[in-house]
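#data-curation
PF: Archiving a pair of folding outputs for the training set. Convention for this channel: one message per protein, sequence first, structure tokens after, nothing in between. First:
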Amino acid sequence: MGSNGLVYRRLWPACMLAATLPLNAARAEEAFEDGPSALSAGARPQKLGQPVTDIHGIDADGAPISLAKFKGKVILLDVSTMWCVFCKQDAAPLQYLYQTYRPKGLAVLTCLTEDVNGAAVTQAGLKQWVGTYHLTQPVMNDASGTYDGVAEKVYARVVGGFPTLVLIDREFKVQYMQGGLDLPAVTAKIEALLAQQAP
């Protein structure tokens, strides 16, 4: 348990490959085995140090939103699904990070890629997630699709499942990608990135 009373996991027993196969095991298994070759040319796996691949969708109010909206801030992107047990467990700690570091320039954005049935997340689903976990941070869907959407192809498949946490610096480059929330490690990375001078 952390000093703030939150329980965190150092290892990632997250919704890995087996948990990503609730609807179409053959399709999911094939894509994970193929790796980058299964991705379209417009959705290549994200690499550390490279410019961010943007995600577009709507937020819980139905307004258009994207990663690029937060460019210039340090961004913590959470790529999750509504059916993932560990995504649910990480919602409160992510809200804690948002409340703690927002005044210093941190943006926290959750992108829900699938609802409880593996389908696209609607505005109603986004509202449900926000209400259930009492979130004040932005929550969005991925308008490009679910299983084949940008967020899953570019981020979640790189680390192998959900949740996927991505830290983006003020220059809009990816500096950290990890499966699951290791709160001490992510906090240290956030503080280091916030301490850097803005470009």
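PF: Second:
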Amino acid sequence: MVMHDQDAFGVREFCRRHGVSTGWVYAEWRAGRGPRFFWAGDRRLISAEAAAAWRREQEAEAEPPRAA
């Protein structure tokens, strides 16, 4: 399922599309986590690929451990 038709998102657009707050994303970045980003001038952008990778990481962390 494609969740976007853009190549990159600004921070507010990323947050709106993923149901998280900008404060949470900035706190994650300060902690060394959160989605990868790049700078375009003075704007911090999150590529569609980085957003997808972040979603996969979040899903993997939420999965219960498998029984042996």
